[in-house]
Amino acid sequence: MGNKIISRQRRARKTRYKVRLMDIHRLTVFRSSRHIYAQVMLNNGSEVITAASTNESAITEKNKGNIDAAAKVGRLIAERAIKKGITKVAFDRSGYKFHGRVKALAEAAREAGLSF
């Protein structure tokens, strides 16, 4: 593996360890070159409570790998989490830098009612 991937995984491990100590649900993000995925799961990662991604038919956009699509995923994951009774989560950005699509997803989730 390249150094870039190893560094991202190291940052992700540090974040997940700190989130596990907080003992609340976590909102995880994974981004690929074409799509972005978000999940709300238990703090130990054993069970996914709700998920949203740009692969779903609810997000109909020509270019699904951009900031607008990420914001739609953020709003969608927040709505689904609130329906399940979850309002406070810890944001696990999986080692990605907090800018661009990851930042757009986080800000949209905050605006829709999630607090982190």
Write the layout of secondary structure elements.
Layout: H1 3-22, E1 26-31, E2 36-41, E3 48-53, H2 67-83, E4 90-92, H3 101-111
Parallel strand pairs: 1-4
Antiparallel strand pairs: 1-2, 2-3
Helix pairs in contact: 2-3
Let me know the largest β-sheet: 4 strands, mixed
Spatial shape: globular
On the 0 to 100 scale, the average pLDDT is 91
The helix-strand sequence is: HEEEHEH
Unreliable residue runs: none
The whole-angstrom Rg is 14 Å
How much helicity do the residues have?
40-55%
Give the helix/strand class. Answer: alpha+beta
The DSSP helix count reads 3
With strands numbered from the N-terminus, the spatial order across the biggest sheet is 3-2-1-4
Q: What is the CATH third-level topology name?
A: Nucleotidyltransferase, domain 5
In terms of DSSP E residues, the strand content is 15-25%
CATH architectural type: 2-Layer Sandwich
Distance between the termini: 32 Å
The total tally of domains equals 1
Quick one: CATH class?
Alpha Beta
What's the β-strand tally? 4
Can you tell me about this structure?
By secondary structure, the protein is of the alpha+beta class. The protein has one domain (3-111): Nucleotidyltransferase, domain 5 (2-Layer Sandwich). The chain has helices spanning 3-22, 67-83, 101-111; strands spanning 26-31, 36-41, 48-53, 90-92. It has a four-stranded mixed sheet with strand order 3-2-1-4. A hairpin with a 4-residue loop joins β1 (26-31) and β2 (36-41). It is globular, with a radius of gyration of 14 Å.
